[in-house]
Amino acid sequence: VGAAAWSWLKGRGDATAVADVTSGASTKKTETAPGVVELSEEAQRNASVTTSPATLITLPSVIELTGVVTPEESRVAHMRPPARGLIEQVSVRLGDRVKAGQTLVAYDNIQLGELIGDYLTNQATLRQAQTDLEVKRAALARGEALIKEEAIARQTLDQRRAEFQNGEAAVASERARVSKVEEQIHRFGLSDADLANLRPEEGQSGHRVASHTVLRAPFDGIITKYDVAQGELVEPERELFTVADLSTVWVLADLYEKDLGRVQANTAGTVHVEAYPDREFTGRVTYISDLIDPTTRTAKVRCVVANVDGALKLDMFARVVVPTSDRRQALTVPVAAIQQIDGQHVVFVRQSPTRFERRDVKVGTTAGDRVEVSGQLKPGEVVVGSGSFYLKTGLLRERLAGDGD
């Protein structure tokens, strides 16, 4: 407790004594009943002990629903290859955490390879057509010059003009073929710069390299499904991976038809799972289904829960506590008053300025800095808020002292 430390002195039976080591002051050893702790006023000041009466306040009634943890549907990606291909390298495994843009698998894209071959062929044909057009353009220009001198017949000039127009049409047709293949190639992620690098220069070509494609993670997430191996031939219909972003999850719970009028969307809810009995996850009800299951007579309720540390796992069973439109009187104490001993929630009630008694309680709804309790407590009884941990420590030390004797 800062510079001031205090310790519990061992005694026999249920005896408890407190010594304030810093001040040198101590209380005399006194016999106390089970579950009662003695703490001097000076030690209380050193431990910053505060007290508050148990108070009745109006709280909304709550309803408890059962549900299952599921991923957020908009943050689940089913990764399939865009075309038929041969798997060359798999870079992740089931359960791996991946970052947006991270390579999942590399494969030889057979369809892309064929398209690149068509593209190179059409480019060559286009260049040939353009060369032929230039020859015909020059022949037409010479014919137009010669016709003025009557050095050639009009029929010859007309024939050269027709050949030039046919050449223009051939170039336009080849350009259209090239553009069509380009668009198909762009769908696989190749840019105009990539296409420029495909053009053969001095006998070199990027054809074989360019057909190798990678699938990348669309966002940060976890590999929740895995169905691929190196060397496999895969088709576009086959799902290779499922990537799920679990930083936010849904708890889909069942709400009985008779309770539909008591629960509204856009209200806060708390989620509890057996794996973490002492932990409460805060969520928000964002959707209540318009459909009733004809068998169970329930509607699905979606509670969105932040899951930054990944504690909530897919398919976990969960309890969702949701406030309703009903109101009730509830006995509350400060949140800081609640301690746990052997898995039981307890508070410490002041019996005198230096004597405090343990009371077992059940914890309910939290409202701001106060929490609902029920059990061995009455309205108006004064409980310890801040500093209750030191009373818990003293009670446990007393138990150890008694066991030692």
Account of the protein in words:
- The longest helix is centred in the N-terminal third of the chain and has 39 residues.
- Helix 2 packs antiparallel against helix 3.
- Helices cover 26% and strands 37% of the residues.
- It is an alpha+beta fold.
- It is built from 6 helices and 23 strands.
- It is rod-shaped.
- The N terminus is likely disordered.
- The two termini are 28 Å apart.
- A 6-stranded antiparallel beta barrel has the order 5-14-17-16-15-18. Strands 6-13-11-8 form a 4-stranded antiparallel sheet, with no helix packed on it.
Spell out the key features of this protein.
single chain, 405 residues, alpha+beta, 6-stranded antiparallel beta barrel, 4-stranded antiparallel sheet, 23 strands, disordered N terminus
Gyration radius (Cα, Å) is: 39 Å
Q: What characteristic shape results from the CA principal axes?
A: rod-shaped
**Count of beta strands:** 23
Largest beta sheet: strand ordering: 5-14-17-16-15-18
User: If helices are DSSP runs of H or I spanning 4 or more residues, what is the number of helices?
Assistant: 6
> Which structural category fits the helices and strands?
alpha+beta
Question: Based on the structure, what is the oligomeric state of the protein chains?
Answer: single chain
Proportion of residues in helical segments? 25-40%
Mean pLDDT: 84
Q: What composes the largest sheet?
A: 6 strands, antiparallel, barrel
Low-confidence stretches: 1-30, 202-207
